[in-house]
Amino acid sequence: MSTADETQVESEAPKRKLDLDVEITDVGPCKKHLKVTIARSEIERQFEESLGTMKREAAVPGFRPGRAPRTLVEKRFRKQVAEQVKSTLLMASLEQLDEEHKLSPITQPELDIAAIVLPEEGPMLFEMDVEVRPEFPLPTYKALTVKLPVKSISESDIDAQLTKYLEGHGQLVPKLEGGAAMGDTIIADLRFEDEGQVRSELKEVQFRLQPQLQLQDALIPDAGQVSLGVKPGESRSTDCQIGSHSSDPSLRGKTVRVTFQVHDLKTFRLPELDDAFLSSIHVDSVEGLREAVKEQLERRIAASQREALRTDVLAQLLQETPFDLPSDLVTKQEETTLRRLTMELQQQGLSEAEIHAREAEIHANAKERTLRNLKEYFLLQDRRGRGHQGR
Fold first, then answer.
1. I need a surface site. Which of 171, 217, 257, 334 has the fewest CB within 10 A?
2. Helix (H, G, I), strand (E, B), or coil: what is residue 380?
């Protein structure tokens, strides 16, 4: 047999298993506690191997490499060798644990390496907690009933979408004639009163007139209807519903009176659909532009249908398959979600004070979104891993 063949046989030889005693106990949802005992014979064997390597490589004054007496090398480098032995045994035992017990850890094990001691006598012990993937029976898919949402596109839908598109190429200009109409921009002071007393005021608030106006922690349900026709210098009053996360605890959940003192009106001046404009957006005709808008709506509806089906299926599967989540993973992921939600609010222009006022709401949303996303993730991963059973 050639040397190359011998090398191949050696590389394919099974790795020697350590003499380990492993105790595994459940200590929480998706969490296991491992107590591992490494036999004294393994420590002695690894110590001999590491000491032999050290003897061949160590630089000892007065001796050529590999020629220093074993007792001198052991005395001089015992602490260094002991650390090497501990590290080697620890890594080898972790690999063996993974191969033999298939724990599927999903977070870094809680292992205090510095606290592990290589004893002078007896076995080496270490303990750790490991979070593992949740286990649950694969749900049956053929029992699901889903309904595809259907939406037909009308000419009015195309008109509305075309207007939105043109606004992106238009200008917001003062409205010099007539009162406010839906879609106009109003600049007004808002005064909130409760039982005849002014509780707060917002100066020069700019908002697009829609059927209802959603503020940071309040809702004005009929803002659109009340404000139709209003002109600069005029005021309108209606009811306002204060949210449960208002910065004023005494107003939370109450209905108060809000007055709009209008200062200015603006509207969009849309571009003319002439040849110059159509050429600038690379469209040949108005009909071609409407067709492009219709295709965009169709793509949006198709994407919305796919998302609705996905949401419906996952909701049914999660209801059919309840399971616990790893608590440490939830905590870490919730922190990431919380940072992302806070960043989104900052990008929307909310100040630090406004974000702080909504802290309880943001934390609740982060918790809910994290739990839902993690459950969906494990459910889908488990489905891919075990195949399409039950279909």
1. 171
2. helix
Q: What is the CATH number of the domain that holds 205?
A: 3.10.50.40
For residues 331-357, average pLDDT: 83
Encoded amino acid at 366, one letter: A
Which whole-number Å values give the CA distances from 329 to 25, 48, 106, 332, in the listed order? 19, 41, 8, 5
Q: For 331-341, write each residue's pLDDT tens digit.
A: 889 999 999 98
Question: Which H, E and C letters describe 221-248, residue by residue?
Answer: CCHHHHHCCCCCCCEEEEEEEECCCCCC
Can you tell me whether residue 175 is helix, strand or coil? Answer: coil
Whether residues 57 and 115 share a domain: the answer is: yes
| Helix intervals (H) in the chain | 3-12, 40-57, 70-101, 155-167, 223-227, 275-280, 286-320, 327-347, 352-357, 359-386
CATH number for the domain spanning 120: value is: 3.30.70.1050
Asked if residue 211 lies in contact with residue 224, where contact means CB atoms within 8 angstroms, the answer is: yes
Tell me the C-alpha distance between 61 and 209, whole Å: 88
297-323: b (≥16 Cβ within 10 Å) or e: beeebeeeeeeeeeebeeebbbeebee
